[in-house]
Design a protein that fits this description.
The complex is a heterodimer of chains A (about 500) and B (about 220).
Chain A: H1 7-58, H2 75-78, H3 92-97, H4 103-106, E1 117-122, E2 128-131, H5 143-153, E3 173-175, E4 178-184, E5 190-196, H6 198-248, H7 264-313, H8 318-350, E6 358-361, H9 362-380, E7 383-388, E8 392-395, H10 397-413, E9 420-428, E10 431-438, H11 472-482, E11 486-492, E12 496-504
Parallel strand pairs in A: 7-9
Antiparallel strand pairs in A: 1-2, 1-5, 3-4, 4-5, 6-8, 9-10, 10-12, 11-12
Helix pairs in contact in A: 1-6, 6-7, 7-8, 8-11, 9-10, 10-11
Chain B: E1 2-6, H1 10-22, E2 26-30, H2 33-42, E3 47-51, H3 59-66, E4 74-78, H4 83-92, E5 96-99, H5 104-118, E6 125-128, E7 131-134, E8 139-142, E9 145-147, H6 151-162, E10 168-169, H7 170-177, H8 188-200, E11 206-208, E12 212-214
Parallel strand pairs in B: 1-2, 1-3, 3-4, 4-5
Antiparallel strand pairs in B: 6-7, 7-8, 8-9, 10-12, 11-12
Helix pairs in contact in B: 2-3, 6-8
The chains are: A alpha+beta (about 500), B alpha/beta (about 220).
């Protein structure tokens, strides 16, 4: 089922389940407490009546010994000649048929009220001997009850000189809608005291229904509230996911609307937004790079196409063909340089470029490089001044010399005629420090932070015609960084530009 | 037709200029933005081929400044083929757009189209009596028979045909038929006119003394 995969539904289900359990537990406890309180109240009244009755029946008639029983009328009865005729004394059971309690006790049994307390007196064999008028119809005491009560009465402890203590009446029991208790007298009869509690039970049922009703109400309210809350909690997730969907569809400019920046999801959204931003930037850079690379290739291809198409339009002389071929060759060379640079950068980017880790004489390498560029310097009338301290560096000497040559070539080409290039190598803070400075026009401050960017050119025009792809400094930076070194540039307009390379001298 | 090419890649500039000259255009060249805007503002070129990426002053800037004074049709050359670049070019006032690398045929066709549009012509043929000038094919037919003309002669007829009914001064003709490198003798124009009259009939080109020439 798809619906159960939804976090909102799962949250709602767990929440509902817990709510049901809590409400049910709470309702059940409340019901039990209410019920207990009711029965406690009723049972308290029971105890009072049972005690009174028990005391009355236990009290020995004067001159009759300690045993109080129904075989002789209790003393109060004699004080009440209306209720107890004399002949009853000879027929105790017969007398019991018209048994009357003294008014003090009888008042406790409201015979006119069907909800009041009642009593039933049973003979030793369980026959009904007498009862209050409101007692329910019940011909005899069940045998099992007699057996149980007799069992209890055997435990009576007789203390010398004291009246025997009758067993405590067992706690009231429910018998249908009646709550009653039965106990035995010392003479072996049984007395049941009870009360019809149908109305209380009905009230209790009503209270239970009320609890169920209130519980359901709370549950409904809780579920609706929970659904709303879960919806609110999940909404940022939906925002996040819809933004992520748009981004994965290619719209990298999408961001998550983070109204609640303080919540956990708000923070997550902020983190995702910054990730998206970086993704967009890196995509944009990648796109820019690809587009720049394509752009760099378009111009030489245009040259070749135009040259060849022009040449083929009609018959040409040999020098014309030679000129066309030379132009095509220049374009092809330029493309080759560009392709090599691009591949080199790609390898450096991917970390695939295998750099040697050799300890080499850096001063000798710099010297070789200055020798290599000296024809170019002579051509431009630029003087190279080198101050090289003997120094060993660690790295790939071929790569390092590539960087040095590149920096020197730049310093010569962007110099003024008759200018000079200073090259110095020394150890500074344990790092091999190479400084190449020229006396050229310098780099404008606005361009300075970008000179190591790929295809970045200060004058916005391609200088591809003079052999530059716009990748030289980017490659230098990539090589130096792969060696664990740094490269920096400072420039003063009209005074010159200084590149500083720092390389580790120990592995 | 005289056109200006502003392009900083020397090999491309040279071959493009050569190809267009062979097509019969008078071609001026400029290797950077400064020279480009100077020339473009100084002469009434029939069209401009303008590279976008240029040293000193880029193509956008040249176009923006040129549009303040001149309506010269401009064909932009660029290595950027993104829509926003094209839109920007056309919005700035470029008449057409060619993305590098291009075919020469395409440059020729687009150039013809922007020149034709600038003279409010909708087709590539102009009928003058029994003479038909086919601008696309660069041929002239008289009574459905091709007439052999040199490139210069054709250019003269085409220019006058495109400005049919107008009197074209000798200076205008010099400016549009010869490029900056031509050390033309002042009577060279008369030689071309007389050659055309020989081939297409004496009445084809009318001389307005003291004013110039006209095709009626």
């Amino acid at each position: 089922m798809k619906i159960f995969n939804s976090i909102r539904w799962r949250l709602q289900m767990w929440y509902g389940l817990i709510l049901v359990v809590v409400l049910a537990g709470f309702g059940f406890t409340a019901f039990q407490m209410e019920r207990g309180r009711l029965f406690n109240r009723i049972d308290d009244e029971f105890h009072r009546r049972v005690n009174e009755l028990g005391n009355f029946l236990r009290r020995p008639p004067p001159g009759r010994g300690p045993r109080g029983s129904f075989d002789g009328p209790p003393p109060e009865r004699r004080d009440d000649p209306e209720n107890i005729p004399d002949q009853d004394r000879e027929h105790p059971l017969q007398a019991l048929k018209d048994f009357r309690l003294p008014p003090r006790i009888a008042n406790q049994f409201d015979e006119t009220d069907t909800n009041g307390f009642y009593y039933i007196i049973w003979g030793t064999d369980g026959h009904r001997l007498g009862s209050s008028t409101n007692a329910p119809e019940r011909p005899s005491l069940p045998g099992s009850a007699i057996a149980r009560l007799q069992g209890q009465s055997r435990n009576i402890v007789n203390l010398p000189g004291q009246p025997p203590i009758p067993p405590e009446p067992s706690p009231p029991q429910m018998l249908g809608n009646f709550r009653e208790t039965t106990f035995s007298t010392q003479s072996g009869e049984f007395i049941t005291v009870g009360r019809f509690i149908g109305r209380e039970l009905h009230d209790l049922q009503f209270a239970a229904l009320e609890l169920v009703g209130i519980g359901s109400g709370i549950l409904l309210f809780g579920l609706v509230g929970g659904w709303w809350m879960a919806g609110r909690a999940i909404r940022p997730i939906q925002d996040i996911s819809s933004a992520a969907v748009k981004i994965s569809a290619g719209d990298l400019s999408q961001r998550i609307d983070t109204a609640e920046t303080e919540s956990e999801l708000g923070k997550l959204a902020a983190v995702l937004n910054s990730t998206f931003a970086r993704l967009e930037t890196s995509f944009a850079q990648q796109q820019q790079f690809t587009s720049d690379a394509a752009h760099e290739l378009r111009t030489p291809v245009s040259v070749m196409l135009t040259q060849t198409q022009t040449a083929l339009n009609r018959d040409r002389t040999a020098p014309e063909y030679r000129e066309t071929l030379a132009a095509c060759q220049r374009s092809a060379q330029r493309m080759r340089r560009l392709i090599e640079s691009l591949l080199e950068l790609a390898r450096l980017d991917a970390g695939q470029e295998q750099l040697k880790r050799l300890t080499f004489d850096c001063a000798a390498t710099v010297h070789e490089c200055t020798e290599a560029v000296s024809p170019l310097a002579e051509e431009r009338g630029v003087r190279i001044i080198s101050e090289l301290e003997p120094l060993n560096c660690v790295g790939d000497p071929e790569r390092i010399s590539q960087v040095i040559t590149n920096l020197l070539t730049n310093a010569i080409q962007y110099n003024r005629i008759g200018g000079q290039v200073r090259v110095s190598l020394k150890s500074e803070k344990g790092l091999g420090t190479l400084i190449v400075s020229d006396s050229g026009v310098g780099i404008p401050a606005a361009d300075l932070p970008h000179v190591f960017e790929r295809f970045y050119r200060g004058d916005k025009a391609r200088s591809g015609s003079n052999g530059h792809s716009g990748l030289g400094l980017a490659i230098c930076k990539a090589i130096i960084e792969a060696h664990g070194g740094t490269i920096e540039v400072t420039s003063e307009p009209e005074r010159g530009t200084t590149f500083t390379v720092r390389l580790p001298t120990t592995a | 037709m005289r056109i200006l090419i502003v392009e900083d890649e020397p090999d491309l500039l040279r071959s493009l200029a050569q190809a267009l000259r062979e097509e019969g255009y008078a071609v001026d060249t400029a290797p950077d933005g400064d020279e480009g805007i100077f020339k473009a503002e100084s002469y009434d070129y029939d069209a401009l081929i303008l590279d976008v990426m240029l040293p000193k002053l880029d193509g956008w800037e040249i176009l923006k400044r040129l549009r303040k004074t001149k309506k010269t049709p401009v064909l932009m050359l660029t290595a950027r083929d993104q829509t926003r670049d094209r839109v920007r070019g056309l919005d700035t006032g470029a008449d057409d757009y060619v993305v590098k690398p291009f075919d020469l045929e395409e440059i020729f066709a687009r150039l013809r189209a922007i020149i034709r549009r600038s003279t409010s012509k909708t087709t590539n043929t102009i009928e003058i009596g029994d003479v038909t000038v086919d601008i696309a094919a660069r041929t002239i037919l008289q009574s459905d028979k091709p007439v052999e003309l040199t490139a210069r002669e054709y250019a003269l007829v085409e220019f006058l045909a495109l400005h049919r009914g107008e009197v074209v001064t000798r200076t205008q003709l010099y400016e549009h038929l010869f490029d900056e490198n031509d050390e033309t003798l002042s009577n060279l124009l008369d030689v071309h006119v007389s050659n055309v009259r020989k081939k297409l009939g004496a009445e084809f080109i009318v001389t307005r003394r003291g004013h110039g020439y006209c095709i009626e």
